[in-house]
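Throughout our pipeline, every protein is held as a single compact record rather than as scattered files. The record that follows is passed on verbatim for readers who wish to inspect the format:
___
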Amino acid sequence: MEFEYSRANPRVTVAFASFEAMHTVLEGVVTDLDEPAARQLFASIETRVREIESRLNRHDPASLFARINASRGREAVPLDEETYVLLQLAELFRRTTDGYFDLAALSDRSVGSVTGSGSVTETGDMAGSGGMAGFGGVTGVGGATGPEGVAGPGDKTGPGGATEDRRGAASGAAAGGKMADTPGCVLDPATRSVRLTGEGVRLDAGGFGKGYALERIRPLLTEAGVRRALFNFGDSSVMSVGTHPLGDCWPVGAAAGGEPFRLVGTSLSISGLHPDGRAHIVDPMSGRWVGRRTMVAVEGRSAFLCEVLSTALYAAPEERRTTIAARFEGYRYTEIEM
């Protein structure tokens, strides 16, 4: 882990740290902590993110997601309580996004075509679309070189009962869509286990892993008494605490340009093509890569839900986006032309 600490500005101390995780980089700025406390905080953050990665990285044979995928639906796989709640939430969000957020979007199917324009790729990781300008686009400070708070639509609906219906509660087709009658996996509340619904189904955390990790480190910041901080995961998911110490927000710029987003204790996620034009998000309805040259940014309280929604809204056709987004009170989306 890279760590730097600065007292250059007499009004505010600044700690910066970064480390590689989920096939990308997590970097963070925290103010107003002494150096030992800042070092301890970032060490705790790295430990928590590594624990989450050890569950979600389907390419690591020892990970929980890899073991679930290896079961090929032939047997139920026991889950820890955190992953059980996470999969409950994932199924809830699959339903409330009309199926456009789907952990099983990369299951065995034809993905040789692209919806929109753009070249085809499977990134095979949890790296983001590179939609943010990174910390180069954030005003500097002092010269420094289920998860808490996550609920369902409108922050009113909890995860209870989200996945216990083995028939799949997505009755019929979503308006204008072809949502499957059954989810990619089914949870058993009695045994706290999961079973894939087909031999070719595989779960992938690429559409939410970074946002989920950011949400899970927020309690660590609260416990440490942090009042101002900014974290950037993969230049596609950002979480803020409070405001910039020398301003009224954390200004975050998008690589595609436009006015900066003004974050005040909120989060931001941007989904779209990779900067080199490669497609990496699949439309769950058609099984095709989405190649639209429009990025979708979502702002709101939960970094987890922002990433879920930005993934879903980018995959969804433009005429469906407003309807889906309206179900999530306190979250707003912006389309950015590349």
In short: Confidence is low (pLDDT under 50) at residues 119-125, 136-181. The radius of gyration is 19 Å.
